[in-house]
Amino acid sequence: MADRRKLAAGNWKMNGTADTLGMVETLAGAHGEARSELLICPPATLVHRLAGAVAGTSIAVGGQDCHWEETGAHTGDVSAAMLADAGASHVILGHSERRADHGETDAIVRAKTQAAWAAGLTAIVCVGETLAEREASNTIDIIGGQLAGSLPDQATGLNLVVAYEPVWAIGTGKVATADQIGEVHDEIRRRLEKRFGAGVGRSVRLLYGGSVKPDNAAEIFAVENVDGALIGGASLKADDFGGIIAALDAA
Ligand code: PEP
Questions:
Q1: What is the DSSP string of 213-232?
Q2: pLDDT higher for 3 or 82?
Q3: Rounded to an integer, what distance in angstroms lies between the CA atom of residue 214 and that of residue 117?
Q4: How far apart are CA 8 and CA 16, in angstroms?
Q5: What percent of the chain lies above the pLDDT cut of 70?
């Protein structure tokens, strides 16, 4: 089995101002020695400040989205090169909230992933089915289609992380069962191996996301092919994020 370092990635979404950065100090103090890789993706306004605040700690900083072009007439957008310039090393792409709120298609996510790679960022590409799609037994087809359409050909274990986030489990308190997570993660692994070859396919880390909390984290992290989590709400509280990191370290 490939040696994949576990990753705990926090997605602050549209939450956080300068005073939120205090919790990162608490987190770094308690988990600076974590075995797992730690990443926080704050809103774009905080990327630069957070990068300064975590300098010298083991916490990395990521963006939550980027444009597919490097510069240009795109009012309100931020490019991958700008995120890198502000101190980010990662960027979340294709989150279901962006797919739903901003009409992002797989082709757009693919173009953004390419832009992220061109800027030297690791892309965390999100896939996931809605409740209606799951109830219609379409989960595997939906995930397969999103992977095929969203991932460019030049994937490596360093430039790509895939996050499986069932839409119905995000911010709802509903968590997919271990069996549901295992089935999808195994399928994602198989598809990555088939498309990119065994070496790359086995080295890409697969995160689960959707209402991960300290009290359900250990069960999720025990599932084969779960290499960590993308964490929304719980990543805003040092105790909760810390509890999840501890569970990941112990897995
Ligand atoms: C997310 O936004 O990626 C997420 C998983 O959110 P939550 O943990 O709040 O469900």
A1: -HHHHHHHHTSTT--EEEES
A2: 82
A3: 32
A4: 19
A5: 99
